[in-house]
Amino acid sequence: MLYLLCSVNVTLADTLPAATGGQAPASFEELWADFDPEFEPLDVEVLHSWEQDGVDLKVVRFRVGVFKGQESKIAAVYGVPKQGTNLPGLVQIHGGGQYAHHLPCLLNAKRGYATLSIAWAGRISAPDYRVGPDEVQLFWNDDVDHPDYRPTTDWGAVDGYHAPTRNQGNSFPNVRPDAWTIDRVDSPRNSGWFLCAMAARRALTFLQQQEQVDPDRLGVYGHSMGGKLTVMVASDPRVKAAAPSCGGISDRDNDHPIFRSTLGDNTSLKHIDCPIIFLSPANDFHGRIGDLPKAIQEIQSKQWRVTCSPHHNHQDTPPFEVASMLWFDQHLQHRFAWPQSPTTSLVLNTNDGVPVVHVDADDSLPIRSVDVYYTRQGKEHETSADRDHTVHRYWFHAPAATDGQQWHAELPQPSDDGPLWVFANVTYDLPHSVTGAGYYYREYTTDRFNVSSLMLSVSKSRLVAAGVRPSLHPTRLLEDFGGDWQKRWFTYQPDHWARRTNQVYASIYHAPPNARLTVDVQTQRPNTLVLAIDEYAASVELQGSSGWQTVVVDVNDFRNLAGDSLTDWQGIHQLMLTDTLRLKPSRGSDLNSRTIGQRWSGPDPKFRDLRWIAVDPEKDHSATSDSP
User: Fold this and answer.
1) Residue 552, number of CB atoms within 10 A of its CB
2) What are the DSSP calls for 501-513, one per residue?
3) Which of 164, 531, 564, 591 meets the CB 3.0–4.6 Å disulfide criterion with 585?
4) Phi first, then psi: what are they for 57, rounded to 5°?
5) Is the pLDDT of residue 5 over 70?
6) Residue 258: pLDDT above 60?
């Protein structure tokens, strides 16, 4: 593969005027006042092209701007249906550690979209054009003779790369000046966030200039860091719909006042007036659900939805991931109509002290279920320092029943001291299945989707004043595996039987002293059952049998990658039942990952009575026993 990249010594005017008098932009308006994303030529290069399933795909590169006399260019994957005309266009923004990817471009094209997936970190995944971290390093080193060399994003004199950044010591959010920054004073224009948001706005210009694209129907979406960038870009008047996932609502607490006044999420949200949907898993560390009500209050748009998967952290399953494409279907293609957001109301003053929630759900599409999730493990002012708590808080599940008008559910309370957080999920059947690329580019197909209510929060003092009383008390039974038990657990791979739960983090499910963990299992063939607690795992060999086998494990049976045993049950966060588990080394460790267990043989296992048992520590126990 031959690349001919010519350079000409031409002096280019900088895209942005230098900060004068030591004054940097101090507001959102000042930050963007000097940037016209349509002014400069794009100077598009085509680095690679191919056709796949009736879709024209290219790896392209175009100018972001000129900084310190050097061009900055961003690479991207572009996909458009062959013979496509007057198409809506989408900018897709990857997250930290991710790649620009051909799959959303391909799958979106099959649904009538032109899509540009931008490689702000330089990484690209496309057939015969893969740029991973090693290839990015080759590009930085200008190692053009290496067989794996690929031109990619070139930030020039500045540094908008991430994981890793090009310049050692560069911190992506940093507004302080350095050799690789635009300004010589503390400035939001020194932050990688600003550079990448500029690149995404230039990506909109790229779409505008494509003959197949309707420039009046542009959307933007992204995951994690891409979610924040989506929120930063959604204020561009060319954006007609936006869908951030796992980001864009919680970056509010930076310790630098200039960052907070220019690049904080709350600052960007206040300038959004296009239709926007927030994909916000309930346990996400990056876009915390406690900030979601504030984000909805801050936006100017009256057209919004939220979808919140219970228990999930920074990942989702198809009924939630599909929300982005359905949102664009409505607002850019006018071929889908979202139901109205469900609304919830709480009755706190009841005879038995158990709150009741009422849910109004739009029935314009067939409703599959209405489910209420609630917790007392929220915090009024949650920050990134609360990560472990945010990720592992346990959401109780309350199935809702309908009287034909409203849906209702009782919310029995534990004795936790936190506020009561409540939201409702309405699952709808889709008229037709939808196929797309998920947060991490896994192809999915789903026949259902979810829309959530906005989370309600009630303070502890208000609960006490209303006479709400605890009615859930400590129990040794973690799970009976009856009824809707899977809604109390979660998975990111719903086609496999393995499940996780954060129940062990909830106070009513804490282990008693000298406890062991036991569960009854039924498997028709010999298999290995793996139980995992956080980064520790225990495996038990099971006999094939039509009867129930009782598995009993001690705390010392759980070992981590280094072979160290779990010392006690105190402070554990998450429990998993599975057939295989890959134990991974911590960052900086020289250990190699190791897989525990093996693929399950035969029909899926059945479980009953997962529970703690208190035992005499002086007595031994058997790992498994048969029971009738």
Assistant:
1) 17
2) E-GGGSGGGPPPT
3) 591
4) -125, 145
5) no
6) yes
